[in-house]
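hi support,

uploading two proteins for the ticket. first:
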Amino acid sequence: MSITYSDEKASPAEPAPAAQTIALEILTDEELSVLVPAQGVVVAPVLDAVPVAERDAVRRTAFRGLVARGIVDPPDPAGVAAVLESSAAATGGDVGIDLRVRNDVLSALTLRQSASAVVAVARTTSSAQDFWYAHVVEEVALLEEVGSDGLHRFALGHARDLPALLAAAVVHPEATDGAGDDVELAVAPDSEAPAELLERLGQAYLRADVLVVTRETGAPVERPDLTGLFTGPLGSWSVVSSPGSQRAWARAETVASVTERTAELARIAVEHARTQAGRTTARTEVPS
């Protein structure tokens, strides 16, 4: 599922610069759980709804589908039998089996797992929600769009185009400038924004919550500020909150300022990925 927009008439926003991407494979939640056991920051809306006791059966079915689609080669029966006779299998633990994965899918999953910076976006309209991710590795951006149907659509882009790609993903194509004073509001679960702000935010057709997740080599994941963008034919607003804070601020935005905010988040991700790649290269070049 992809987010779609209404036909309301308004002055259209300036289109973002065109960025070329290459469409890759489409995988399901269940198939990804077979290929990459660690879910990471990406959601799995369908698999997460399956009771834990039933997930092994779901994964077995997904594995058969991967083989049928030619994404995974059938495992060697002798090798499987040997693994099943191992101590892990005897004790009832998880059993790992080496699989031969089709090259294009393997390359995409390798990028996904090795990204040191990920731009994560939750997109919501009045009738639907989906998720968009950009996994950044050096000069490459692996794009992943996840619908509520649990389908993960992958595409490949260039890191230099990430500002334009992110803007296209989070800004309503008919967005107009917002107007009004900044409003401070509580972000506690039971709190509500002032009625005037609720009215203005309710008029925005597309809500995009954007988070840049970074990881230093050998360090835990860092989660910076969450930027909530509300854009549509009747105006644009942003809501920014800091981790651990009980307060947030909402401010009217122009389409240009929203685009610049998203561009800055994209630049943060790209620069972090380049820096981490440089550090890794420097370490590998140091003689022992």
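and the second one:
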Amino acid sequence: MPMWLNLSPVNFVPLNSCMISLLGTINYRTTDMLHPLVHTMQVRMTALEEQCGQQPELYYIVIAMQEAFDRLDYPSTFCDLLF
């Protein structure tokens, strides 16, 4: 599994119900592929904290990853997804 995802227009699904034709989201196949990776990292962080105590830096990294993953569902332009 790659560490990052190179998005292409194939991964982008335009919103049909939107007046602005450039808005869309990432297709469900892509987010379904990323969801287990995000969940696994959450589980690993919890296990590490049980063994070694709180790890503030790791906690904030995992929170940032979760928030970035959640933002993939927000409508945006394809260019906004890339940057």
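thanks. also noticed: Strands lie at 12-14, 24-26.
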